[in-house]
Amino acid sequence: MHKVLETEAAAPSLTLSGISKSFPGVKALDNIALELYPGQVTALIGENGAGKSTLVKIMTGIYQPDGGAITLNGQDITLPTAHAALGLGITAIHQETVLFDELSVAENIFLGHAPRTRFGMIDWRKLRAEAKDILASMGAPIDPNARLKDLSIANKHLVAVARALSIEAQIVIMDEPTAALSHKEIEELFVLIDLLKQDGKAILFISHKFDEIFRVADRYAVFRDGEMVGAGLMKDTEQSQLVRMMVGRSVERAFPKLDVTPGDVVLDVNNLSHPTEFEDISFSLREGEILGFYGLVGAGRTEVMQTLFGITKPSGGSVRLDGKPALAKNPAKAIESGIVYVPEERGRQGAITGLPIFQNISLPSLKKTSKSGFLRLAEEFALARKYSERLDLRASSLSQEVGTLSGGNQQKVVIGKWLATAPRVIILDEPTKGIDIGSKAAVHEFISELAADGLAIIMVSSELPEIMGMSDNVIVMREGRIAGRFAREHLDAETLVRTAAGIEGDPA
Amino acid sequence: MKALLKHRELILVAAIAVLIGLISLRFPAFIAPRNMVRVFDDTSILAILALGQMLVILTRCIDLSMAANLALCGMVMAMLNAAFPGIPMPLLLAVGISLGAGLGAINGLLVWKLDIPSIVVTLGTMTIFRGSIFLLSSGQWVNAHQMSDAFKALPRAVMLGLPVSSWIAIAVIGLFVLLMSRTPLGRSFYAVGVNPTASVYTGIDVGRTRFFAFTIAGAVAGLAGYLWVARYAVAYVDIAGGFELQIIAACVIGGISIAGGIGTVGGAVLGALFLGVVNNALPVINVSPFAQMAISGAVIVIAVIFNARNERKKGRIILKKAEKAEVAP
Which regions form coiled coils (chain B) (predicted)? Predict the structure, then answer.
């Protein structure tokens, strides 16, 4: 398994101390201290929203910290730009590699620091030769002249690693590099990580998968709600301890969940499957029920919801609404039958930000508000007023553009637009992602009221407190399948995380 | 943003007024009502076409084939009229408009069903339409003497002080105002242009909306085809050659964002009028045709810069407001 290195006593390559970062309404990082050692892999563990990606952005010069210090090999440094970070030898490999599809492998490796001839032109011969050497030293079977777009994701990662080697990076950050890889490709990546370690690079490895972390990491650091709650050597810890640190001792249930006795079954989903994204999804949903969907990012939850809403087509299975077949061909049909969907990416998919509030709210209900094919503005305004009052929307007027509202208020517009269609089932995909705490509570309260009014609600969320606080029942998905079902009274944070991550065995 | 656009329309009205004022200082005859009517009538075809193009641009597409569509419909109507002078005008017009709509629908279907970028689709159909005119007419002209009197006279007939072609333009403007402000389809053109992804998630079929935009643009091209051929009393392969760029220019000057989602009927019409006044005024003040082209081009560039500046400003305002909204409880 993992190697215990003799270099434990060595000085850290990169030291972060007292790093804090706030965004309006959210404290993303609070007084973070982290050390990365040469020739070692440090695993960064934490739930979604724990602050991992904010830290990566600070380390790569994309965000500026509000406070704190960064030292590299004992010297204080600042990272005002991404270019500065690269110049100091800090590089990141992301889940979806950020490289240039239309350029060759060799060009990608040397972009920005290509070898030059005496006349300042790019020395192509040298560039190709060096690219070939680096790839050969990695044992990567990649032609340096191939177009990047023709490579598999795994091979693109290899190119990214080759790039890290070519700029003589000291610090390599890997942000969920295995999320899109097959098992074999993951093994190959681990061989490479060993190579980087032998080369003395300090590696920060971010992953949700515990088996990988135990396979590859020497140290760990656990984040929760923007704070570092634990760090140490992998050999001194075990899975259950890490899970406990991630989740916290107890998740408070300070949620405005009303007690509702669920009514009749509204939605009945049977063996819903998709060729590549999910299979065998079966569940039923009752009036007044809030059904939580928990899982890691990429577990297939959003894909299932998009199928129910008619955006993607399933390969098999059935959906029944009030006992009648309701597998939607397109979103318009889904809306008509009474299934509506509040998407995850509010700005891109949810609100039509350039249009005023009243037009956003009335958009799916125009049939209802118009008469013999002509819009009636008065009706539209009345509809918009009704739902903006019900949702306590804060805006100067209903003609205000949605793009000028805060995230929480934008979300209220999106929810209001669906309520105006008088739906039977409302699907909320990460309903409070990226909105401030005050609006979060308001949205939660509102979801709870909707359930009490008899609406059937599906809530996809990656935030444990939200899932545990709001749901009557929880379905956990892992790798496109349902991995567990839990009733509210049996909800337990550790079990949920274990089920989502696929950790075997009993909690310690 | 609405306020900015209103602002934009006021600026255009002011610019047109200043332009007319300056010219009439030297040539008082220019501002005479009869001449103004003539200038408006001269611009009516451009205004009608700009409205059709506006729909397409609103949905983040572009139609380069409008002028070729116009020419093909004009040729078909002229040939029909020459061969069968007995066909009543309303029927002939209906044929022309339907043909235009059909050609526009081909563009729309290609963009919708095959998901090909509209600039490529309409570049192709533009050439196909022009080629079809040649095949139909064997390169022959349809001349004034072959057209029936009714065919030629209709656009020039004067009703209540205005030629019929001007009245047709006014009617089309009225229909577009109704379409854009009072129908669900008009609303969906804006929604699709502002945010196509969110439109999909709201149950709007983006491809279908674009299809309608192209079809309507084709229909107005068919109508304009008749006006053009009857007005100049001639039809041949190259009529309205290069006019597609004038149409797009009118839209750009009128403040219709090439990025989609922003634009008004008033803007498109004023943009066309502005170009119409420039094109009519420059010969009056003895500007050479080559300088005219340069000046028209400069006007377009200025309008684009203006649009870009407007949209940048909008970004800043949003951020400030968003910050304020975030701070508020």
Answer: none
